[in-house]
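We treat protein structure as text, and this decision shapes the records that our systems exchange. Because each token names a local backbone shape, the row as a whole describes the fold. An entry from our holdings is shown next, in its original layout:
>
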Amino acid sequence: PDMFYGIRVFDKHTGYAGVVDAIDDSTANVLMRVSKDGKSRIIPVNEDWIIELNTDSGSLTMELPEGLMEL
């Protein structure tokens, strides 16, 4: 999970979601706090949602469930 710190997160449908600035791995599901424009959202690290993790460019592309970014 530490490799996610500072990674830029992109959603396949809505584009840039923000930067991972915190990880919570104290539960069964690892959670990332993704921040953009002063707002933070919690996104589960679900392998089924990950399209590509590019550590060279520092980006993570996901296909998030519809409506998740509006919560």
